[in-house]
Amino acid sequence: MIERYGWSQGLQDDFQPHADQGLSPARVTVQRRGAYTLITPQGEMTSHLSGRFAHEAKEGEYPVTGDWVAVSVPPDKAGATIHAVLPRRNAFTRKAAGPGRPVAQVVAANIEVAFLVTSLNADRNARRIERYLATALESGAAPVVVLTKADLCADRAPALAEIEPLTRGVPVHVVSAVSGEGIEGLRACFAPGQTAVLLGSSGVGKSSLVNALAGTERMATGGIREDDARGRHTTTHRELVLLPDGRLVLDTPGMRELGLWDAEAGVAEAFDDIEALAKTCRFTDCRHEAEPGCAVRAALEDGRLDGDRWRNWIKLQRELAHLSRREDPVARAATRKVWIQRQKQGRAAAKRRGDLE
Ligand SMILES: Nc1nc2c(ncn2[C@@H]2O[C@H](COP(=O)(O)OP(=O)(O)O)[C@@H](O)[C@H]2O)c(=O)[nH]1
Ligand SMILES: [Mg+2]
Ligand SMILES: [Zn+2]
């Protein structure tokens, strides 16, 4: 069973020390407060954290949906106990919403593809797509922009003209859960045994896409008032779903806020046009304000660079700077190094597989 959920030789190697202690591997499919649903070699099971793990784990180390964990299963198989989380291949991480000290929140772990979902009708927001794209590029998963509800959109050309320049070569798919348009194209973005996470605001049609891919009503979907395009929060927890074709999709509730977490490389990649311009400014320390020979200003003036896109870049830079002032810079540098390396390997592997456009 765990093979169908993406268990691999690499994971088996990481797991060996736990196997030596008599533990079993399992993947988290549903995460609710303090309780987890797992797929174990003995089937689906609910579980809780071992007292020791709960006591010793630091922020960001608690299991999330998509994680591989080491569990003990009692003889009556009544419920498993989680003792450890295996090292994550990658993770989609945001700054937890709310005031106070910035805290990382892992939204999904061990994902090959990140579907960034937005609807073609009223929800479309270029600045939000830029933010999601930066976070997805940072995660090391391969991003895919998905524009939903094509059946409700009489003319998609304006939306595509707005969005395509932002996606920096990341594939864009136009789909409809109602007509079925584009669903096979999404399937072609990942392979059986691989995991795609669905990310985007509430009501854009994420759960409907799970159902369209599954061919059955696997997830509850929300009623929506089409006049203001606001969805109800029907999906209340993150859930990893095994499709009949062997692919895995991780559905998430809408996120009101997607605060950046440690995403310098992702922002640089999502805004590589601005990064390239800034390199050609006359002064290497140009602040792009009123310096002579500023290539960014020149591009803003002649329309090559959109003013809203530029202002969003500044806003994201401020968010990153705000985070880095608050965190221990040494610890940050150490995690970044590992992360950039993994991210590069992950995307290179995805390209080699040739399953991405
Ligand atoms: N016309 C149309 N409606 C859709 C489509 N996809 C989703 N919806 C509707 O949009 C609403 C929200 O969908 P849901 O999948 O729950 O969105 P989620 O919050 O992102 O999971 C529901 O009423 C769906 O029936 C689509 O492709 N076309
Ligand atoms: Mg939903
Ligand atoms: Zn400049």
TrEMBL record:
Tell me what gene encodes this.
rsgA
The entry marks the following residues as binding GTP, namely: T148, K149, A150, D151, G200, S201, S202, G203, V204, G205, K206, S207, S208
Species per Swiss-Prot/TrEMBL record: Inquilinus ginsengisoli
Tell me, in a sentence or two, what this protein's role is: One of several proteins that assist in the late maturation steps of the functional core of the 30S ribosomal subunit. Helps release RbfA from mature subunits. May play a role in the assembly of ribosomal proteins into the subunit. Circularly permuted GTPase that catalyzes slow GTP hydrolysis, GTPase activity is stimulated by the 30S ribosomal subunit.
Keywords associated with the record: Cytoplasm, GTP-binding, Hydrolase, Metal-binding, Nucleotide-binding, Ribosome biogenesis, RNA-binding, rRNA-binding, Zinc
PANTHER family the record matches:
SMALL RIBOSOMAL SUBUNIT BIOGENESIS GTPASE RSGA
Q: Does the keyword Calcium apply?
A: no
Q: Give the record's subunit note.
A: Monomer. Associates with 30S ribosomal subunit, binds 16S rRNA.
What does the cofactor section's free text say about binding? Binds 1 zinc ion per subunit.
Family per similarity comment: Belongs to the TRAFAC class YlqF/YawG GTPase family. RsgA subfamily.
**Under which name does UniProt file this protein?**
Small ribosomal subunit biogenesis GTPase RsgA
Which residues belong to any copy of the EngC GTPase domain?
Answer: 109-256
Q: Name one GO molecular function term.
A: hydrolase activity
